[in-house]
Design goal:
Helices cover 25% and strands 18% of the residues. With 538 residues, it is an alpha+beta fold. The relative contact order is 0.11.
């Protein structure tokens, strides 16, 4: 089905649940249908993105006097079932007891505490101490099963979610069960490790604390975290994500729980992009390599740029950034075409890396190459074009937006011959070392804005919009500001009045002015929430 095709309306049939009739979609998974109705049904092994295993037997319902796993049953006309009768509830309670027979119940030291499905059901049922008086089966603990993940096999409840994920989604059968009965144990397949590109999804979907993330392990309790919805900037896929943070520090990124967002998955590399936000950062303006106040930096730009504006605007170059938001690039394009009437406009982007797949990842490592091109009013020059123009002495000034411009040592040396080099960047680099003026920029997790996802759709990517919305999880460090805000301030000292007071205002003007963004939507307000009651990853 294409991105814009309407979903066909399902046929509704009559189903009687605990004596009450309901109209439900024919053929729909019964567990999903019951959950949609608000029925309180516990489950462990079922996941909407995986095949049905029906192994945990936790979602039992009564049909014609028998206990049947609702996850393995589909809605049919005339179906009658019991969901909340004493007999059914007692069956589920007993299944939970069986699950807990050998579980260590070490919630106080488990990283999954607070977002653990087993913990929640245990507390929902009764939360009583174990009645088992014999020694529980011991299994391997703290097992290094992959570069990102640690396994505690004693906590594993054998739901097989992780095994099915590796086989069906990652297409890398890294995990298997060995032995049988009480001693059945999760482990890696022979001569394999859990090192596929989507391995951390097994941590998300594990309903207990059997699989834990080495990077997040023992850092903070999940109920102390806040969740902010944003968009991953790891590649052109622009996957929706939740940024989990507290007190100005980001601890992890996970996919949102909405099933239509990246199909609930996220690649490992994308999850680690949060680390760049805490990397070495530029926190105040620099003029000729020395720290400067905001007004002094803007005055230096004005002093060195005004003579060129009066004499030869064609010798000015502006570089848009494939790592900057649509709003940032819209303002950079206005700077190039309207404020400066620059003779040369380029795009700074990283080359394709060949890491794309048919799940989510793209070969294009730039989060917004498409958006930058959409803002341009013609073809954009490449980094190679910029290098040639510098070698041919066609430029007298260069204004760079973003951190993606990667030039050779020879080309960087040629920048010394320019009258002005301004770089808006978030991190120090060889380029910022050569700049006359450096303006510290905020990163994606610190700003409001949008990016443009690549037009190529991965076969499992159901994301409904080509435009992703970023929201700030943490504050920019020091004097760092969004790119659009710096461009507005530079325009002001050059005598150009720009009245935008927010990224949303820039977005609205961009929609009016640029046909490419006519269908873009800012999206409703999704507040930052505390995970104390909102989070459950299993």
């Amino acid at each position: 089905m294409s991105e814009h095709e309407p979903t066909p309306t399902p046929e509704l049939v009559t189903v009687k649940i605990d004596g009450k009739e309901h109209q439900l979609p024919k053929g729909k998974n019964l567990l999903e249908a019951l959950l949609d109705l608000g029925e309180d049904i516990s489950y462990f092994c079922y996941h909407p993105g995986l095949s049905v295993a029906a192994s945990c037997r936790q979602c039992l319902v009564g049909i014609r006097g028998s206990m049947v796993p609702s996850c393995q049953t589909t809605v049919s006309d005339g179906l009658e079932l019991e969901s909340q009768s004493p007999t059914v509830l007692d069956a589920r309670r007993q299944m939970l007891e069986f699950t807990l027979v050998n579980h260590p119940v070490d919630c106080v030291i488990c990283d999954k505490a607070g977002e653990c499905t087993l913990q929640r059901h245990y507390m929902d049922w009764d939360g009583k101490p174990s009645e088992i008086d014999h020694e529980k089966v011991e299994k391997p603990k703290k097992v290094d099963v992959g570069r990102e993940i640690v396994l505690d096999a004693e906590r594993c409840i054998l739901c097989s979610r992780c095994v099915r994920f590796c086989q069906e989604i990652a297409e890398s059968p890294d995990l298997v069960f060995e032995y049988r009965g009480n001693h059945e144990t999760l482990t890696t397949a022979p001569d394999r490790r859990l090192d596929n590109s989507y391995s951390l999804n097994t941590v998300d979907i594990c309903p207990v604390g059997a699989l834990t993330d080495k990077d997040f392990r023992f850092k903070i309790r999940v109920w102390e975290l806040y969740a902010t919805r944003s968009v991953c900037n790891g590649c052109a896929a622009g996957c929706d994500t939740e940024v989990h943070h507290r007190d100005g520090r980001i601890y992890r990124m996970v996919p949102p729980k909405d099933w239509d967002m990246n199909l609930n998955w996220m690649c490992d590399d994308g999850r680690r992009t949060y680390k760049s936000v805490a990397a070495q950062r530029l926190t105040r303006p620099l003029v000729d390599g020395e720290p400067a106040e905001l007004d002094a930096a803007l005055a230096a730009i004005k002093e060195r740029l005004e003579p060129l504006l009066a004499q030869d605007r064609g010798a000015i170059g502006v570089v848009l950034g494939a790592d900057a938001s649509n709003e940032d690039n819209f303002m950079a394009a206005r700077m190039a075409y309207d404020f400066l009437e620059a003779g040369h406009v380029y795009l700074a982007d990283s080359p394709d890396n060949g890491l794309g797949d048919d799940i989510l990842r793209r070969d294009d490592p730039n989060p917004n190459r498409a958006g930058a091109r959409g803002c341009a009013r013609g073809d954009l020059g490449s980094s190679e074009d910029l290098a040639r123009d510098l070698a041919d002495h066609k430029l007298e000034a260069l204004y760079v937006v973003g951190d993606r411009l990667d030039l050779s040592d020879e080309t960087l040396g040629q920048l010394r011959g320019l009258k002005l080099v301004v770089v808006q960047a978030s991190e120090p680099s060889r380029l910022t070392d050569k700049a006359h003026v450096v303006l510290p920029a905020a990163k994606w997790a610190e700003v409001h804005g949008t990016i443009t996802r690549t037009s190529e759709r991965a076969k499992r990517d159901l994301s409904a919009s080509r435009f992703g919305r970023m929201r700030p999880a943490v504050e920019p460090p020091g004097m760092a500001r969004p790119h659009w805000d710096w461009l507005k301030r530079v325009g002001a000292v050059l005598g150009v009045t720009v009245e935008f007071e927010s990224a949303h205002a820039v977005f609205q003007e961009m929609k009016k002015q640029v046909p490419f963004f006519a269908e873009a939507q800012w999206g409703g307000k999704i507040p930052t929430v505390m995970l104390r009651f909102a989070g459950r990853r299993g």
